[in-house]
């Protein structure tokens, strides 16, 4: 649903992808080779970040988030080659992002590991309340989808059309459990997001078996939060135009808003979660073990 590349023909798309791939290889080599210095820094950075954004946010569609959610129920039947290909594209996109970030830091004389420069104050969002606001926004944005799904699991046809509501009472236990899991995941995500601004998000609670009282490894929180943010943003980018279009033409109304409407919150949820994660990372990263800068 909502794929940006749904109407591209295989013959045109194949040639285009091959050409972009060759161009990308040249750009990647230029960032680490001496001959790359003849190419303006801005051009290499623009190309690298475009490759990153395209592979992470443009090519994948909602099926990536869908299969991620279903994996918690050990349901893998929907994973096919297109989904695997999208996952591989996302991995490539992350590698392009790392390449662009490393080149950007190295070319401006900053530490490649942390990005800090000598005699330049580190500008971040960790020192003010912006990160805290982003965290609370992410928590609130997670609730609409969760509330609707949990209501369906309880047999309440919240936001359903009359036709769809008739099937709620006849749901099997498996179907109810599926709705409960889909509603519970955003709730769990909201709780973990709250941890980004709580003490237990930096140090394991004492009741936590074996790890109680120990510091939470920074990447233990940053990596899952980043992945969740990316999945929500890419899914939100694809499904939001579809939902808005349906609202404008009357397909989504007050009688059936719960069937697609809550997904409209995915995009702001993902963006807010990403900002909250950046704030958490900047607040906790401390001094760099390579350049010894704070």
Strand content: under 5%
- The gyration radius over C-alpha positions equals 22 Å
Helix content estimate: 55-70%
The N- to C-terminal Cα distance equals 45 Å
Q: How many H/I helical runs?
A: 9
Can you count the beta strands? Answer: 0
Instruction: Tell me the series of helices and strands, N- to C-terminal.
Output: HHHHHHHHH
Average pLDDT confidence is 90
| SSE-based structural type | mainly alpha
Low-confidence stretches: none
How many domains? 2
Given the C-alpha coordinates, what overall shape results? globular
Biggest sheet overview: none
Commentary on this structure:
This protein is an all-alpha fold. The chain is globular. The longest helix has 31 residues, at 218-248. The chain has helices spanning 10-30, 41-58, 62-71, 81-107, 130-153, 162-165, 173-194, 218-248, 266-284. The model has no long low-confidence stretch (mean pLDDT 90). The chain is built from 9 helices and no strands. It has 2 domains: 10-107, no CATH class; 130-284, no CATH class. The protein starts with 9 loop residues before the first helix and ends in a 10-residue tail after the last helix. The chain crosses the membrane at residues 12-35, 42-63, 83-103, 133-160, 180-197, 218-244, 264-281. Keywords: Membrane, Transmembrane, Transmembrane helix.
SSE inventory with pairings:
Elements: H1 10-30, H2 41-58, H3 62-71, H4 81-107, H5 130-153, H6 162-165, H7 173-194, H8 218-248, H9 266-284
Helix pairs in contact: 1-2, 2-4, 3-8, 5-7, 5-9, 8-9
